[in-house]
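Support request from a user on the community tier.

User writes: "When I paste my structure tokens into the form, the page sometimes reloads and wipes my input. The last time it worked, I copied everything first. Here is what I submitted, just in case something in the input itself triggers the reload:"
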């Protein structure tokens, strides 16, 4: 460390990495603490920084989506991770999906370019007086969770997250599969696995009756809809997943012209295209049951599972009681909490929180205050959501429902684009050439 303006960041995920880069480019020194590989989690497979665990997709880039708007907002504000993600992108239609390993490598390389960056591989279970950003993520270690609990009170909340299995491409039977996007969009970004009614019903009955992992050490089972396990979703009714992740609408087999009763979609996991993720198939089934049930999908009858799905506990704080809109702990010394631990849900949302925390702590240490974007933006609305008093606080991801409504535009697509234009205009008016 050379300049003396030191900030400690605990956690090397998306939020911590974005926060570090925001501070480093502003002339601060950063010491990042990452417990992996000395201590592992239930979801991470490597010790790399900014590892993506639930999916390799950062969701849509289209301006008519909340996720697309959030990306445009972050680009305007100088986000560091999104450009790296685009450099590591794999074909995925209108979504920004990345090669996981290349992305992590790119983030680590970018951080290493700064002489004022240090990475310490160790678990931290106590805080000192240095300005600190806690970005340990939803898989915070028990010791760190206790430390956070002392800062925020014991009313920490928990929800459950599940990640989808990955199969090798060469094990997919292409006699029962075809490439193509919905309504012909996206070229060969998605691999479609159709099922007819009798095949779907047999699969469905096996799915809802399959054995799941017993969650012995979890305080309570509270499933967050954004990562609902496929088997839990299926138990809501036989058509729930058929009109959800398995919806056949807009898909037709180009070889036969045949429509299907249900369609499972697979998405590339890497540039090489030798691994595919089962889209929407987050699961808590036991490994043998995943093999048995998912192999009932005709194209996967001999599937090789590169990774089975895993369910794990996600930890987040009751942030409205303790955080302000800058992700700073109210009162006391400069301590910020970013990432999913703060109550934002999603990859890009975590990046956003790390960016806002990094910019905000830099301003604070220079005797200034950073005013977060207005509530006309996804960024500003999420920041205010996690800091506003609520009866029943739940994690939140980017969506148009948290924005002030626009009236008078009946066409849904035009209204969504109006949200985008209003938000970007608001940023320009608030910050100018940021």
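"...and here is what came back when it finally went through:"
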């Amino acid at each position: 460390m050379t300049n003396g303006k030191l900030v400690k960041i605990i956690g090397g995920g998306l939020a911590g990495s974005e926060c570090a880069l925001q501070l480093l480019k502003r002339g601060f020194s950063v010491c990042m603490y990452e417990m992996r590989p000395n201590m592992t989690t239930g979801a991470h497979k490597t010790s790399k920084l900014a590892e993506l665990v639930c999916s390799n997709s950062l969701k849509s880039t289209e301006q008519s989506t909340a996720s697309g708007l959030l990306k445009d907002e972050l680009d305007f504000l100088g986000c560091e991770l999104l450009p790296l993600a685009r450099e590591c992108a794999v074909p995925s239609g209108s979504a920004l999906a990345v090669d996981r390993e290349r992305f992590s490598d790119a983030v680590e390389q970018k951080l290493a370019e700064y002489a004022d960056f240090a990475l310490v591989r160790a678990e931290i279970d106590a805080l000192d007086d240095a300005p600190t950003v806690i970005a340990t993520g939803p898989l915070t270690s028990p010791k760190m969770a206790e430390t956070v609990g002392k800062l925020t009170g014991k009313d920490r909340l928990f929800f459950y997250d599940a990640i989808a299995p990955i199969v090798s491409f060469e094990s997919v039977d292409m006699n029962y599969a075809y490439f193509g996007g919905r309504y012909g969009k996206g070229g060969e970004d998605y691999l479609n696995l159709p099922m007819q009614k009798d095949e779907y019903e047999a699969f469905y009955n096996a799915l809802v009756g399959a054995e799941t992992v017993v969650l012995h050490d979890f305080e309570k089972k509270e499933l967050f809809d954004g990562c609902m396990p496929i088997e839990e979703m299926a138990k809501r009714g036989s058509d729930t997943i058929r009109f959800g992740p398995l919806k056949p609408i807009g898909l037709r087999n180009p070889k036969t012209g045949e429509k299907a009763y249900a369609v499972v979609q697979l998405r590339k996991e890497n540039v090489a295209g030798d691994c595919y993720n089962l889209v929407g198939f987050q699961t808590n089934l036991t490994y043998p049951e995943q093999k048995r049930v998912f192999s009932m999908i005709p194209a996967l009858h001999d599937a090789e599972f590169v990774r089975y799905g895993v369910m794990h506990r996600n930890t987040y704080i009751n942030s409205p009681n303790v955080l302000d809109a800058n992700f700073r702990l109210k009162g006391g010394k400069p301590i910020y909490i970013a990432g999913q631990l703060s109550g934002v849900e999603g990859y890009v949302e975590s990046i956003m929180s790390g960016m806002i925390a990094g910019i905000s702590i830099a301003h604070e240490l220079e005797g200034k205050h950073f005013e977060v974007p207005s509530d006309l933006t996804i960024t500003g609305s999420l920041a205010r959501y996690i800091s506003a008093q609520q009866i029943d606080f739940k994690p939140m991801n980017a969506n148009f429902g948290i924005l002030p409504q626009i009236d008078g535009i009946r066409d849904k697509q035009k209204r969504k684009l109006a949200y985008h234009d209003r938000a970007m205009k608001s940023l320009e008016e608030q910050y100018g050439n940021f």
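Agent notes: The reload is a front-end session timeout and is unrelated to the input. Residues 70 and 378 are 6 Å apart (CA to CA). Residues 162-313 form a domain with the Elongation Factor Tu (Ef-tu); domain 3 fold (CATH 2.40.30). Escalated to web team.
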